């Protein structure tokens, strides 16, 4: 299964955040409409649930809480809906899917629509290498339904964000002109650990795109009273540091600074003490990563391209979960590289320079790819 070439849209500075969302929605209206029509989680779970009386208080509270905390990003979300010509409800549901799904009765869940998103990261900050490598895994409905947003804000800050069609940038990974980047991993707390109608993770990660320092990024994460929780890998090019930040509801945060020992993170809490769902997929990937070589960037790419475990491979090709791309952030080269296809073969589609405020795209031969 192959998606179309990943497109990038440069937008801004805009007169307001609604316009930023509107222009993005307008530019990618076909991808957004196609994604919503083919997304089984939306069609078979979220939309039927949203039509029930039980859903109304949750959706109302989620909307009000997040609009109050992040009015600019809420306007951007509304603009995306209007620009793409799709119902606002659909855009709200896909942006809050992680905050809504735990409250849908398991008996009404459609067994054909897996709710799990899986990503894998391997991180190191050593004397000779400082690298964050990340597999962006998602439901197969997202294949061909992602794009890059290069946003330029009126305050002079720029960001690049890998974006799921119809969602705020970015629930995956991004970087900005302050030399900050991040990748994300879902984590699965048990139902009792989830607080209804808290701040949505898509809003927190959108906020991170505008962070001016690691301390600022941490403050933005800590100040958001999230519903579900998340794992953030914060990468600071200027300071040459990588922090893994695990969060949960009730303002719980744990920070682990990555050092010379390679740090692999799948989709389980590793250092924040939270009751979590037993995830066989993550446990399997964690065990497999522990026995693979991790001494070089090539080793990292081989690890993220590993398919030895046919049931729970690190690199996923369906039928439900699919590795959309791999990104490699090299803190010494000051680059963010996007690889499409198995990263073992190093076929690069985009390389962004983080050494200037412009976040320039280096020339890549898209027909042949560039090898790392």
UniProtKB/TrEMBL annotation:
Residues 128-344 form the Peptidase C45 hydrolase domain. Pfam families: AAT. InterPro entries: C45_proenzyme-like, Peptidase_C45, Peptidase_C45_hydrolase. This is Peptidase C45 hydrolase domain-containing protein. It comes from Gossypium harknessii. The lineage of its organism: Eukaryota, Viridiplantae, Streptophyta, Embryophyta, Tracheophyta.
């Amino acid at each position: 299964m192959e998606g179309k070439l990943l497109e990038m849209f440069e937008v801004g500075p805009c007169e307001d955040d609604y316009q930023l969302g509107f222009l993005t929605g307008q530019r990618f209206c076909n991808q957004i409409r196609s994604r919503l029509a083919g997304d089984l989680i939306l069609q078979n779970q979220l939309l039927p649930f949203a039509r029930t009386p039980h859903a109304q208080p949750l959706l109302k509270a989620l909307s009000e809480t997040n609009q109050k905390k992040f009015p600019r990003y809420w306007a951007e979300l509304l603009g995306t809906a209007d620009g793409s010509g799709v119902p606002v409800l659909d855009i709200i549901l896909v942006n809050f899917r992680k905050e809504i799904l735990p409250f849908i009765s398991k008996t009404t869940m459609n067994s054909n629509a897996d709710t799990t998103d899986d990503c894998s990261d391997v991180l190191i900050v050593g004397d000779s290498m400082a690298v964050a490598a990340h597999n962006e895994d998602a439901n197969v409905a997202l294949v061909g339904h992602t794009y890059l947003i290069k946003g330029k804000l009126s305050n002079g800050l720029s960001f690049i964000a890998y974006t799921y069609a119809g969602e705020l940038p970015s629930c995956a990974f991004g970087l900005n002109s302050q030399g900050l980047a991040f990748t994300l991993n879902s984590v699965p707390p048990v139902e009792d650990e989830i607080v209804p109608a808290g701040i949505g993770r898509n809003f927190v990660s959108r906020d991170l795109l505008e962070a001016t320092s690691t301390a600022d990024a941490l403050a933005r994460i800590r100040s958001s009273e999230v519903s579900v929780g998340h794992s953030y890998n914060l990468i600071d090019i200027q300071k040459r540091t990588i922090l893994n930040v695990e969060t949960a509801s009730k303002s719980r945060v744990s920070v682990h600074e990555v050092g010379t020992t390679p740090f692999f993170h799948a989709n389980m809490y590793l250092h924040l003490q939270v009751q979590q769902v037993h995830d066989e997929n993550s446990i399997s990937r964690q065990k497999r990563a522990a026995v693979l070589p991790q001494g070089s960037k090539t080793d990292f790419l081989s690890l993220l391209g590993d398919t030895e475990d046919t049931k729970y491979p690190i690199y996923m090709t369906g039928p439900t979960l699919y590795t959309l791309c791999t990104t490699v952030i090299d803190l010494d080269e000051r680059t963010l590289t996007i690889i499409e296809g198995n990263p073992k073969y190093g076929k690069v589609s985009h390389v962004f320079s983080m050494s200037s405020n412009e976040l320039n795209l280096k020339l890549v031969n898209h027909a042949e790819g560039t090898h790392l």
